[in-house]
Design goal:
This protein is an alpha/beta fold. It is built from 11 helices and 7 strands. 36% of the residues are buried.
Length: 204
């Protein structure tokens, strides 16, 4: 087991959980199925542009609105505004574990999220920004998970090597990318498993 100098956690699916019912309700309100709306909003090239900073959050929303309008007719600005207003919940039990690791001082604690340029404001609005020593946003890094180079860049910014990093994510391709970069990477399957992992790593 490596000597862990940095704990790096994913955000969505680990700490933040989007309101899926709200997404369905939003799409339905515009006369669009949730699947059709998702296919537009998360079309791979468009999503990649938003996640790597080629489009900022407002530009992403505007383009979603334009495409929904073009294909289904609702007002583009109203669609963009509704998409931007989608809500989420925070798992504060997971955040409490993160704070314990940070307060313990055994390792740096970082967040690495594939996210739009809204990420930092969202974290502050949720009251969790200060749970991390460093926040890595793919839109600002200009590289996204699962690119191994993105993980190497994160490790370098933390002043360590990938081999001294423990990465936790709920998405298997991201774990594969971190492992390809040399990190100790594990799948998030709930708070009990995370607590056990952090204990095993000597961080709690």
């Amino acid at each position: 087991m490596p000597d862990v100098e940095a704990l790096i956690l994913d955000l969505d699916g680990v700490i933040r959980h989007w309101n899926r019912d709200g997404f369905v309700d939003m799409a339905t309100s515009f006369g669009v199925s949730a699947d059709d709306f998702a296919a537009i909003a998360f079309e791979p090239d468009l999503l990649a542009a938003a996640m790597t900073g080629a489009l900022d959050a407002d530009e992403w929303g505007s383009e979603i609105g334009r495409r929904v309008n073009e294909l289904h007719g609702p007002d583009a600005v109203a669609v963009a505004d509704a998409f931007a207003a989608l809500g989420w919940t925070i798992d504060f039990d997971v955040v409490a574990l993160v704070r314990r690791v940070r307060d313990g001082g055994r390792a740096k604690v970082a967040l690495f999220s594939n996210a739009s340029t809204r990420l930092e404001d969202d974290l502050r609005a949720s009251g969790v920004y200060d749970a991390f020593d460093v926040v890595f946003n793919s839109a600002r890094l200009r590289m996204a998970k699962p690119d191994p180079d993105a993980f190497r860049a994160v490790a370098a910014s933390l002043g360590t090597t990938p081999e001294r990093c423990l990465f936790v994510d709920d998405t298997l391709p991201n774990i594969d990318g971190a492992r390809a970069a040399g990190m100790w990477a594990e799948h998030f399957d709930g708070i009990a498993g995370l607590r056990s992992l952090l204990e095993t790593a000597g961080l709690l």
